[in-house]
Amino acid sequence: MTTLLARRAPVAKLGAALTLSVAAVLTLDPVALAVLAAIPLVTAPLFGLSPLRLLRRAWPAFAAAVGIILSLALFSADRGGTVYVHFGPFLVTSSVLATAGAYALRLVALSLPAVLFTATTDPTDLADSLVQHVRAPARFAYGALAAYRLVGLLTEEYQQLTMARRARGIDSGGNPLRWAKLFAGTAFGLLVGAIRRGTRLAQAMDARGFDAGLPRTIARPSRFGPPDVALLLGTVFLATVPLLAL
Amino acid sequence: MITLDAYGWRHGGRRAWAVRGVDLRIERGERVLLLGPSGAGKSTLLSALAGLLDTASGEAEGTLKVEGRPGIVFQDPQAQLVMTRAGDEVAFGLENLAWPAAGLWPRVDEVLAQVGFPYDRDRPTGRLSGGEQQRLVVAAALAPRPDLLLLDEPTANLDPAGAALVRAALAAVGPDVATVIVEHRIAEILPLITRVVVLDPGGGVRADGPPGLLSGPLGAELAAAGVWVPGHPLPARPALHSPGEPLISTFDLRVRRNAYSDMVVQEREIVAVTGPNGVGKSTLALALGGLLRPAAGRVSTADGEPHRWRARRLAARIGSVFQNPEHQFVTRTVRDELALGGTSPVHVDELLDRLHLAELARANPFTLSGGQARRLSVATALAAAPRLLILDEPTFGQDRRTWTEMVDLLAALRDEGHGIVAVTHDPDLVTALDAREVALSAPPQEIAPVAFSREGRQG
Questions:
Q1: CA within 20 to 30 Å of B84's CA: A81, B126, B161, B331, which one?
Q2: Which residues, 6+ apart, have CB-to-CB distance to B57 below 8 Å?
Q3: Helix (H) or strand (E) holding B288
Q4: Do A164 and B78 make contact, defined as CB atoms within 8 angstroms?
Q5: Predicted confidence (pLDDT) per residue in B163-203, tens digit
């Protein structure tokens, strides 16, 4: 992550991503949304990520976009225009397609900047930048960072719990109701474990003088300079052009 | 430097005092081993010395005076690491204490070198072994130059190699620091110790003196109370009968990234799976237990491959006991835990008696002590009466008394006809049960076993 834009201060990157997302909320014009979605794709290489990898990382957004199109084809109130498909409850007309397409595109334009930001920003750097550049309380920034580490351990813990339950003779046997009950039980076990570990971690952090009211030293100074301002201003410019012009 | 006069602490909402009537003076440079049976209040006393007991959460009596800054190391490294990079972890405590910025990174490098941390500062903490993580935790505790270093069972969660790493780090602590350690397995730590303090569960200090104190009658008393006093013989429980029919066997087995030599487990025998961390011992246990699907090769029994069975059928044939007992608990009382899956009330009572859990029948499984939770997890695995038992580290973190109970139980189950597989780092367990040892060793390269198993299938 040493490319020109990847190196920018994380809060500047966060600001830029938010600017694009907010712009996507403000319009439903398909061309404007397409331009907004294209901005993170085109600039991704400057952040050290190929456009293809960005698209791959953003798959949940695309899955949700397909969901929007499908549900609007089923439930949309405005079903005017030319009829394309009429099959059972599915009625796809030109106006349905236009509305659904715009919403789907908005979702993609909203998500891509966020995905690009998280993919190219180190969590520790983000915490440092939040504390140093926007004066976020250290208690919040580094507390969240410690919690983020614990979240990574949860996946492994979930697998352990699932296997332990199978060993006890408990499985869903393909029954969705039992699966839901089993999942709720496993999730509860996970939660109990997470709270215990979180409490112990908080105690260990206390013992090391965290949040004791002293001013903290900054071990990793983070710079917020003209290139970061340029990134922010550049994004504001790029985001407003499609809004105003289209 | 530490002065305790008739000190006592009672946790909020409890009737009994966790520690009481403790008189103690500890000076700089002393390395004190704090001993006592479970429930004597060792961990509570350490928390008090670390200044972690808040008067809002309990009640104190007597006086407690600590001159200087304490640093504390707990048991589980995963619940102590804050940052994602090793160097940042050490820097974290220094930042909190407003360490001068110019001297911060040099101090981080110095203390990492002092504990023998083998990687650079950017090493991700998630990619360290347990022993390496704990060594990093010790480095982080030492970084702000504490006057007092407190260690609460720092090696209990580690394999022997990891524990040795941590002890080496402790040996490097300077003479101007007072050290207080709570530890179950004391043979290895005794050479580092200058003084032993024994807490009495009834209150006060039972004994206080040089490590030689433990070779007298006090040593025998403590050994009986569950402390791992060196030089006290352990029980020997060799098999009474020769092994019977094979229960489970593997052929060219490969699971996740590990390849395994073929093995068989028979009735009336205990197989101990040993080897260093990361060679796939637990993974083998999961595959034998029908909980992981083999990537190649086969695990077979007289009734087919365990990973294909429905859970109910699996539990009736193979009982798996996980390293963390709490992972296996799904109900609110010990009795319900055993009755799960339709175990008859008579059999539940038998299990409760046999595993000394009868008095705890109505207790919540999550409130049990370490030894009790371990016994309950074995009892749950036995509930559906499987012939084969697979246990992951059954003696991890146990005191001498609960350890002996576990050895007796496993020996009895074996002699009744069960086949038992135990994944373990504990050489005493292998010796006491006279178990057949299957030692796994690390492959020279990660890719090697894959190539080997492909050739095997073609030929």
A1: B161
A2: B11, B12
A3: helix B281-288
A4: no
A5: 888 898 888 888 899 999 998 888 889 999 999 999 998 88
Query: What angle separates helix A30-43 from helix A94-119, to the nearest 10 degrees?
Result: 20
Answer whether A169 touches B (CB < 8 Å): yes
d(CA B110, CA B128): 20
Task: Provide the token pair at A112.
Answer: 């891509």
Q: How far apart (Å, rounded) are the C-alpha atoms in residues B412 and B418? A: 9
Q: Are residues A23 and A115 in the same domain?
A: yes
Mean pLDDT, chain A, whole residue set? 90
Give the integer Cα–Cα distance in Å for B393 and B268. Answer: 20
Torsion, Cα B317 B322 B327 B332, to 10 degrees, reads: 60
Total structural domains within chain A = 2
Close Cβ partners of A193 (under 8 Å, ≥ 6 residues apart): A157, B326
Query: In this predicted structure, what is the pLDDT of residue B443?
Result: 61
Same domain, A149 and A75: no
Contact A220 B88 (CB under 8 A): yes
Q: Quick check: B226 and B397 in contact, CB under 8 A?
A: no
Instruction: Quote the CA–CA distance of B140 and B134 in Å, as a whole number.
Output: 10
| DSSP per-residue codes, A106-161 | HHHHHHHHHHHHHHT--HHHHHHHHHHHS---HHHHHHHHHHHHHHHHHHHHHHHH
Average pLDDT over residues A158-183: 88
Distance from CA of A9 to the nearest CA of B (A): 18
Residue A96: domain span: 10-121+223-244
Show residues of chain B in contact with A188, CB under 8 Å.
Answer: none
Query: What are A92-126's pLDDT values in tens digits?
Result: 888 888 889 999 999 999 999 999 999 999 999 99
Mean pLDDT of B37-52: 88
Q: Give pTM, 2 decimals.
A: 0.83
The answer as to whether A2 is a domain residue is no
* A206–B314 C-beta distance less than 8 A: no
- Pick the residue from chain B with its C-alpha nearest to A168: B315
In a domain, A67, yes or no: yes
pLDDT, residue B454, reads: 33
